[in-house]
Design a protein that fits this description.
Oligomer: single chain
Shape: globular
Mean pLDDT: 92
Largest sheet: 8 strands, antiparallel
Helix content: 10-25%
Radius of gyration: 22 Å
Low-confidence stretches: none
Strand content: 25-35%
Number of strands: 21
CATH topology of the largest domain: Creatine Kinase, Chain A, domain 2
CATH architecture of the largest domain: 2-Layer Sandwich
CATH class of the largest domain: Alpha Beta
Number of domains: 2
Structural class: alpha+beta
Distance between the termini: 48 Å
């Protein structure tokens, strides 16, 4: 698959990237509210560090919500990064650049973050560096309305929305942890009003559509309405015409910036030649389709069919579904932290903007896997609060997680009882018990 040169030379990428402190739990407000003394302190430190790294300057101003922000400038006086506050973290808005320049653009940002001890993840006691859960986004457009390829080829916008929707493996592994209905990275079919979206896609005529028609056509659908879905075309309107890919999880290196940008260039290049796809309805979207091996296998197949090397992208899948090694893990099987739609208990609003969420963390999903080579494998799991145990699936093993062997896996949904958080897990092969271990769901450790 080749990247279209016109797109590569004109499609711009601007990021909203988030950072937090390595010991974020020490200040509860830092990740619960937008404005705290520590957040203001670290924002100033980051602005000063950016000015130092770029041999430029910074100034204090206010963002669109009238919150404190810092604008930074490079050595030539060109505006570069905006350092702002977010309910979950510190948010940095980057300047728009071409995909070939995103790595170079982001290098000063990571250098500056390191200088003031900020990280693009949350450390957890059980050895996982998880998502920041801040509102990271990827904004796609052009340097000007005249050069913006999305305005020139507005049909691409509609095709892109359908293409991503039909391939959850291009969505879930790259998104934040806040998945599912009411999450921060919803799909069109996870929001109310999906029937209206599908009707709009089924009846649209792309042959003569203009850029300004796109917004008006979808205005009453969840592609544009409040807490719009991923992708979002809420901002695809005059004069800027850009798409907001909501809730891309915080990136961790300049190479990450390049990978996610190139991925979108590949997709848009393909869509220049493709027709609009009919939206697919999924029966098991939050079941097997929201598990690590399924998503990784689908992504690999998709990438290999297009001569895209999937190996560098494995990092996103491993971060989203981390293997838990805390404690004394089993020798013959493993456990990964799974994902399931979150249960939102409360949302605090400020001027129509969600500033914090209360999540019921007792709803959990785990994935059990083994590399044992047998056709007669089963897991037996006992504990309080077991809601659903899937059947055993088989993963072929090509470029598998942490290993290249074939894997057998299943997922388990649990409503954890805080007073009885232990699971008894046993692996059987040919009806013979191979190994048993206990796992503590609250401490996220092997016993």
């Amino acid at each position: 698959m080749k990247i279209n040169k016109e797109l590569a030379d004109n499609l711009t990428f601007g990021f909203e990237q988030t950072f937090t402190t390595p010991d974020w739990w020490a200040d509860e407000g830092f990740t619960a509210t937008s404005d705290t003394p520590l957040k203001r302190q670290k924002m100033l430190e980051l602005a000063e560090a950016l000015a130092q790294v770029m041999k430029g300057s910074y100034k204090e101003s206010l963002d669109i919500w009238k919150h404190l922000q810092y604008e930074t400038f490079d050595k030539d006086g060109n505006q570069s990064f905006y350092v702002t506050m977010d309910p979950g973290s510190i948010e940095v808005k980057t300047p728009p650049v071409l995909a070939k320049d995103v790595a170079q653009m982001s290098e000063p940002l990571f250098q500056a973050a390191s200088l003031c001890n900020l990280v693009p993840y949350r450390n957890w006691w059980y050895g996982v560096q998880g998502g920041t859960e801040g509102g990271c986004h990827v904004n796609l457009g052009g340097f000007s309305p005249e050069t913006n390829p999305l305005k020139k080829y507005p049909a691409l916008v509609v095709k892109y929305c359908a293409y991503i929707h039909n391939r959850p493996w291009l969505h879930y592994p790259f998104m934040g942890l806040d998945v599912g209905p009411d999450g921060n990275c919803q799909r069109m079919d996870e929001k109310d009003g999906y029937a209206d979206v599908k009707k709009a896609f089924d009846s649209i005529d792309l042959n003569s559509i203009k850029a300004h028609d796109i917004y008006n056509y979808f205005e009453k659908t969840n592609l544009i309405t409040d807490k719009c879905s991923f992708p979002s075309i809420k901002k695809f309107k005059d004069p800027d015409y850009f798409i907001e890919d909501r809730a891309q999880e915080a990136l961790r290196s300049p190479e990450d910036f390049k990978l996610v940008s190139d991925l979108r260039l590949y997709i848009y290049s393909e869509l220049l030649e493709n027709e609009l796809e009919e939206l697919v309805s999924f029966d098991n979207l939050h079941g097997q389709m929201l598990t690590s091996y399924y998503l990784w296998e689908k992504f690999q197949s998709w990438a290999n069919e297009r001569d895209i090397n999937p190996v560098p992208y494995q990092r996103f899948f491993e971060r989203q579904f981390p293997r838990i090694l805390f404690g004394e893990p089993a020798e013959n099987f493993g456990l990964k932290e799974g994902r399931r739609p979150r249960k939102i208990l409360d949302v605090k609003m400020n001027n129509g903007v969600a500033v914090s969420k209360t999540i019921d963390t007792t709803y959990k999903r785990i994935e059990l896997f083994t590399y044992q080579d047998s056709e007669n494998i089963r897991f037996e799991v006992n504990g309080v609060g077991l809601e659903h145990t899937s059947k055993l699936f088989h993963h072929k093993g090509f470029l598998g997680f942490y290993d290249t062997k074939p894997a057998h896996y299943l997922y388990i949904d649990v409503k954890m009882d805080i007073n009885n958080p232990e699971l008894d897990i046993s692996l059987f092969i040919n009806d013979k018990k191979i190994e048993s271990k206990k796992f503590h769901l609250n401490d996220m450790r092997w016993i």
